[in-house]
User: Which sequence fits this backbone?
């Protein structure tokens, strides 16, 4: 609490002393980074090959190949000073399944909706508008398996099923100030989950229920971001 008060007093003092019209002084001073902010981002998602770890009693081990997907993210956070911020992030990551060894499939997708709490370490480079950052996040993710037909020749899945699993994320990037409140950036994040299990009820009440277990994903995301301070 003491460090927060000191940082807040310092930010107010600088704001009063430094003329807002002086671009050079803006670049060389701390410009009031304490407070709430919002971030949005979008970009491609590259998910590494995975594995079917279980399918209605059949031997697991079939390799899964994913197509390049797409990610959207949104976050709200609070910067305690110019170095540390905490935020809550939610996003949407989707990849179409390109091929599964030994399986036939039609319009089959794996989606993730992470719910994460993160800590960000950041420091603006003196005399510039550039702020590098590192971020680590933990939480969970809703995973969704959606298919128009997923079959090993004996059992077939149709429709959508979901699970909730542990997830974590590591991120790094650069932000470029547009003004005192807004910035744009480029970032990279590594997103990973534990294995997901999807349960499908038997069609029309006949036969046993189906169970599909998929290895947790390891996804690399490149994002263009927009930040706004309040």
Assistant:
């Amino acid at each position: 609490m003491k460090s927060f008060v000191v940082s807040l007093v310092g930010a107010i003092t600088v704001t009063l002393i430094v003329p807002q019209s002086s671009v050079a002084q803006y670049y060389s001073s701390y410009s009031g980074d304490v407070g709430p902010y919002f971030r949005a981002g979008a970009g491609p998602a590259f998910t590494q090959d995975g594995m079917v770890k279980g399918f209605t009693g059949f031997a697991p081990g079939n390799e899964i190949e994913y197509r390049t997907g797409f990610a959207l993210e949104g976050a709200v956070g609070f910067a305690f000073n110019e170095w540390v911020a905490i935020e809550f992030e939610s996003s949407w990551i989707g990849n179409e399944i390109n091929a599964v060894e030994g399986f036939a499939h039609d319009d089959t997708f794996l989606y993730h909706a992470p719910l994460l709490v993160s800590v960000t370490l950041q420091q603006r480079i003196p005399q510039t508008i550039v702020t590098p950052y590192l971020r680590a996040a933990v939480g969970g993710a809703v995973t969704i398996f959606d298919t128009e037909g997923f079959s090993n020749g004996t059992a077939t899945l149709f429709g959508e099923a979901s699970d909730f699993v542990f997830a974590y994320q590591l991120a790094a990037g650069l932000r470029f100030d547009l003004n005192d409140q807004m910035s744009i950036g480029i970032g990279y994040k590594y997103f990973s989950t534990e294995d997901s299990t999807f349960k499908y009820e038997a069609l029309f009440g006949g036969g046993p229920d189906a169970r599909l277990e998929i290895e947790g994903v390891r996804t690399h995301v490149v994002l263009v971001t927009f930040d706004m301070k309040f």
The chain has a mean pLDDT of 86.
